[in-house]
C-alpha cells in the first residue's frame, strides 16, 4: 500500500509518497481505507517537530511515527477481535482527537449547508457492544452529513462547495445545540450547489506557532 511518510523533521518537502507494508490489525485496532485525510495544526507540529519540547514524546531526532495523517474519512476494512464499535463496511465520516483541558465541540455540517456544534461532553463514552450515538437530526430538506470536526470556539471552519467556492466562518457564529437537534443555516447555496467538504482553518494557528512564520496572505475564493 502507499502512504505519505517522512524520515526527518522539516517543511512539507520532507514528505514522500512511498510503498509501505500492509498494516497488521491488532486485537483493539480498526483498519480504515482512507478516502481523505486532514492536515491541521497537529499534523504540522508532527511534521516540523516543533515546539522542541514535544520531541521527547514524538521523537528526538526523527518522528517515531513516520506516516502523516490524523483526521481521516474512509471505509472500515477490518477490525480486531476486541473491537465492538465498528464493523467492516462501516463508513467513517471523520475521526479526530479530543484533547483534555480544552472546551471542545463536535462541529457537523450537511451538504445542504446547515451546521451545528455540540459539546464533546454530550457524547457519552460507549461501552463494549456500543455502535455509536446520534450526532445530528437529519431530514431531507437539510441534506445529509458531509463532514464533522472537533473544534474550539476560537477556530474557523472552511466549507468547500461543489461550485468551487469556499465559505469561511468562525465556530462561535454557530450556536451550540444538543446532539439530537437540527443545525442552522451555515452556507448560502445557489441552485444545484452543495457543500462537499469541510476543514478547520489552520492558517492562524500555523502563524502563531511558528517563530519564523511570514505574514499570512488573504484567503482565496469568496468568504462569509
**Which consecutive residue ranges, at least 5 long each, have pLDDT under 50?**
206-221
Structural class: mainly beta
Radius of gyration, CA atoms, in whole angstroms:
19 Å
Main pleated sheet: 4 strands, antiparallel
CATH architecture of the largest domain: 6 Propeller
The number of distinct β-strands equals 12
Count the helices. How many?
A: 3
CATH class descriptor of the largest domain: Mainly Beta
Q: What portion of residues is helical?
A: under 10%
Order of helices and strands: EEEHHEEEEEEEEEH
Q: Percent of residues in beta strands? A: 25-35%
Which helices and strands, and how do they pair?
Elements (H helix, E strand, L loop, with lengths): L1 E4 L10 E4 L10 E8 L3 H8 L6 H4 L13 E8 L11 E5 L9 E6 L3 E6 L25 E7 L4 E6 L4 E5 L13 E2 L9 E6 L2 H7 L15
Antiparallel strand pairs: 1-2, 3-4, 4-5, 6-7, 6-8, 7-11, 9-10, 9-12
In a nutshell, what does this entry contain?
By secondary structure, the protein is mainly beta. The chain has three helices and twelve strands.
Structural summary, described in words:
The structure is a single chain. The protein is mainly beta and 224 residues long. It folds into 2 domains: 1-95, Alpha-Beta Complex (Quinone Oxidoreductase, Chain A, domain 1), CATH 3.90.180.10; 101-218, Neuraminidase, CATH 2.120.10. It is 8% helix and 30% strand. It is built from 3 helices and 12 strands; from the N terminus they run βββααβββββββββα. The protein has helices spanning 41-48, 55-58, 203-209; strands at residues 2-5, 16-19, 30-37, 72-79, 91-95, 105-110, 114-119, 145-151, 156-161, 166-170, 184-185, 195-200. Strands 8-6-7-11 form a 4-stranded antiparallel sheet, with no helix packed on it. Strands 3-4-5 form a 3-stranded antiparallel sheet, with no helix packed on it. It has a 3-stranded antiparallel sheet with strand order 10-9-12, with no helix packed on it.
Amino acid at each position: 500500500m502507499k502512504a505519505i511518510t517522512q524520515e526527518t523533521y522539516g517543511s512539507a518537502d520532507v514528505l514522500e509518497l512511498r510503498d509501505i507494508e500492509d498494516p497488521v490489525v491488532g486485537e483493539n485496532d480498526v483498519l480504515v481505507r482512507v478516502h481523505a485525510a486532514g492536515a491541521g495544526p497537529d499534523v504540522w507540529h508532527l511534521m516540523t517537530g516543533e515546539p522542541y519540547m514535544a520531541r521527547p514524546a514524538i521523537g528526538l531526532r526523527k518522528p517515531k511515527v513516520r506516516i502523516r495523517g490524523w483526521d481521516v474519512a474512509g471505509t472500515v476494512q477490518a477490525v480486531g477481535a476486541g473491537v465492538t464499535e465498528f464493523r467492516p463496511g462501516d463508513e467513517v465520516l471523520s475521526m479526530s482527537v479530543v484533547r483534555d483541558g480544552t472546551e471542545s465541540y463536535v462541529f457537523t455540517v450537511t451538504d445542504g449547508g446547515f451546521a451545528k456544534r455540540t459539546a464533546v461532553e454530550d457524547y457519552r463514552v460507549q461501552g463494549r457492544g456500543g455502535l455509536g450515538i446520534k450526532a445530528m437530526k437529519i431530514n431531507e430538506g437539510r441534506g445529509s452529513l458531509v463532514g464533522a470536526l472537533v473544534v474550539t470556539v476560537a477556530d474557523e471552519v472552511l466549507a468547500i462547495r461543489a461550485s468551487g467556492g469556499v465559505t469561511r466562518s468562525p465556530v462561535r457564529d454557530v450556536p451550540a445545540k444538543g446532539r439530537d437537534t437540527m443545525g442552522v443555516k451555515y452556507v448560502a447555496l445557489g441552485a444545484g450547489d452543495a457543500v462537499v467538504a469541510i476543514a478547520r482553518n489552520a492558517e492562524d494557528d500555523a502563524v502563531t506557532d511558528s517563530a519564523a512564520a511570514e505574514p499570512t496572505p488573504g484567503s482565496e475564493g469568496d468568504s462569509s
